Amino acid sequence: MTLRSDLQQIADWVAPRSAVLDLGCGDGALLAHLRDAKGCHGYGVEIADDNVLAATRLRVNVIQADLESGLRMFSDDRFDTVVLSQTLQAMHRTEDILREMARVARQGVVSFPNFGHWRHAFALLAGRMPVTPEIPYQWYDTPNIHLCTLKDFEILAGKCGLRVTDRVVLARGAPVHWLPSLRATLALYRFQTR
Amino acid sequence: MVQRPGSVGVVTPQTLLFSEPLRLTSGASIGGYTLMYETYGELNAERSNAVLICHALNASHHVAGVHAEGASNAGWWDNMIGPGKPVDTNRFFVVGVNNLGSCFGSTGPMSPDPATGRPYGARFPVVTVEDWVDAQARLADALGIECWAAVMGGSLGGMQAISWTLRYPQRLRHCVCIAATPKLSAQNIAFNEVARTAIRGDPHFHGGDYYGHGVVPRRGLAVARMIGHITYLSGEDMAEKFGRLLRTQDYAFGYDVEFEVESYLRYQGDKFAEYFDANTYLLITRALDYFDPAKNFGGDLTAALEPARARFLIVSFTTDWRFPPARSREIVEALVAHDRDVTYAEIDAPHGHDAFLLEDARYHRLIAAYFDLIHGERSEPRGSPVATSIAGERIPQQVSPGRLDGFSEREPARSSE
Predict the structure, then answer these.
(1) Contact assessment for residue A135 and residue A124, using Cβ atoms and an 8 Å cutoff
(2) How far apart are CA A66 and CA A92, in angstroms?
């Protein structure tokens, strides 16, 4: 099974045989890959029944829980890496989850769709909320309540005391080097929490 | 054996006599006891596909299939266990056992005390979850099962499954613990005490020695069951089933049955009092009260669960207020602290505590998926350096004692039906 390119990038940032917490782990593909390819051990947190079932089928340790109620189940510094992949934009308590991530792990990875993409700007100029493959919802029916740009996230990360060490921006799965804040569809950040 | 689709068919209970005395948690011991059990499916040549099902308060060894005398007499978890069911008896050898002190054929308060020849009654020793597990381990010895593929149970049965991981960590690969709790709350114990008070206050109780008087404390037992039953259902489930429906045209301004819910509870209570033993009810509710693996660790559940080596599946139900999800999460939290493998599902089902016995597609699909994984595992005992694959060739395996991950071959996914 080939891993989605953004998950592959995240996997590259995870040390072999380390402890990983994947928040909003979906079907568990990242954790299964990290286990099989890098000997990592960890847990996924997921709220949707179908994803819990899918992750169980991949023999991934999945814990059904709502991230909004926090990560109390996990003690301080319990993990080497904590991942929040394409989930930040759907969280109500955005700042709280970043602070909780900092509490439970030394290293964090966050990915999110870049609202600053030029298509989105064009849509807004044309008078409409953007609907794109990365943000495929109508404004009145979207789980994405906290969309942000690259710069927005970097400011919040600083406010939460997260030290960004790496940033990779992708457009349809391929790395972007030129005009990233306009051309990125997906941004991935790696940060240290201490 | 007659096979109905999806059923293990007609099953015959078996008994085993254990002559060596069993030392109990209380310090007492019991000798010459019998355990009644049933088995379904075939034990494989490696003896690696055995699953133990632990029963809760009022159930028995009769987990699946039907008894010859009555085709309506289906096992208490027949929707879960059978050919093609989540715990598939075409793959697993499933054992159901009636616990010591129960009243369905294993030695209990109704059995003759060898010292007197009369029923034990009040002299039957108080047994604990740990004692049951020790007795089950002896049954496993007798059946030649060194290591269970899984020990599984709901409610009090789930507590036994947890206890297995602590008392015999090397003798099970998986612990499937459903709608359970690491210990009873004050409220849980309070409900048990009301039930016991009802039984002990029945004039027919005779201090537990009612057998010799030719009577049964039926009234008290029925009340105990009514109380228990209320805690098994969710408020919303009761509201939906009964609401304020009346059996009468209008209020009769008396105390006979008027509301449907009264009728239901009385029926449940009376039916239960026909077949259950009052001393067993006292004994099992006490075992529930006493269960608390963290007790010897200053209340620290994390410290208590350190010996566990099994992989865990923990399931709770959102509307279960007897053992609510938060109690299962305590177990998960303690296991995570030890880096143990655990899957935790919180099923949004409306039926309260009883949901663990009912068919719910999400619940049964998850159990089926989990047992698919167990079936796909190579079949050597835990921590073995070499394992035999399903195809039979010997291949090196990297399994740390605490973990069985990294296995990739699995059966194709299937639905629970």
Answers:
(1) no
(2) 11
Span of A27-41, B66-80, B85-99, B233-247 with lowest mean pLDDT: B66-80
Spatial separation of the C-alpha atoms in residues A44 and A64, rounded to whole Å: 8
Q: B50-65: buried (b, 16+ CB within 10 Å) or exposed (e) per residue?
A: bbbbbbbbbbbbbbbb
Confidence of residue A173 (pLDDT cuts 50, 70, 90): confident
Give the containing element (helix H, strand E) for B387. Answer: strand B386-388
Let me know: does B145 contact B172? Beta carbons within 8 Å: no
Q: What are phi and psi of A108, to 5 degrees?
A: -125, 155
Chain B residues near residue A22 by CB distance under 8 angstroms: none
**What is the Cα Rg of chain B in Å?**
22
**Bridge partners, B395 (sequence order):** B387
Joined together, the tokens standing for residue B387 give 């394992």
Residue predicted with more confidence, B402 or A23: A23
Place of tokens 């000997």: A39
Q: Which candidate, B118, B117, B107, places its Cα nearest to that of B277?
A: B107
Looking at residue B312, what DSSP letter applies? E
- The secondary element (H helix, E strand) that includes residue B45 is none
Q: Do A56 and B343 touch (CB under 8 A)?
A: yes
* Residue A61, min C-alpha distance to chain B (Å): 5
**ipTM of this complex prediction, to 2 decimal places:** 0.94
The residues near B214 (Cβ < 8 Å, ≥ 6 apart) are none
A156 token code pair: 């919040």
Could you give the percent of chain B with pLDDT greater than 70?
89
What number is the average pLDDT over the span B40-54? Answer: 97
- In chain B, the residue whose alpha carbon lies closest to the alpha carbon of A57 is B369
Chain-chain contact of A41 with B405 (C-beta, under 8 angstroms): yes
pLDDT for B334: 97
By C-alpha distance, the chain A residue nearest B349 is A49
pLDDT tops 80 at residue B391: no
Give the model confidence (pLDDT) of A98-122 as tens digits.
Answer: 999 999 999 999 999 999 999 999 9
Q: Do A59 and B345 touch (CB under 8 A)?
A: no
CB-based contact B174:B150 (threshold 8 Å): yes
Note the helical H segments in B340-403.
Answer: 361-376
What pLDDT was estimated at residue A133? Answer: 87
- B410 contacts A35? CB cut-off 8 A: no
The reply to whether B320 belongs to the active site is yes
Quote the pLDDT of residue B409.
32
Q: Give the Cα separation of B146 and B120 in Å (integer).
A: 33
Query: What is the average pLDDT across B46-59?
Result: 96
Neighbouring CB atoms inside 10 A of A155's CB total 12
**What is the maximal distance between C-alpha atoms in chain A?**
50
Task: Calculate helix-pair angle for B156-167, B129-143, nearest 10 degrees.
Answer: 70
3-class secondary-structure state, position B108: coil
Distance in angstroms (rounded) separating the CA atoms of residues A20 and A80: 6
Region for residue B196 given its phi and psi (left: phi exceeds 0; alpha: psi -120 to 50; beta: otherwise): alpha
* pLDDT at position B247 over 50: yes
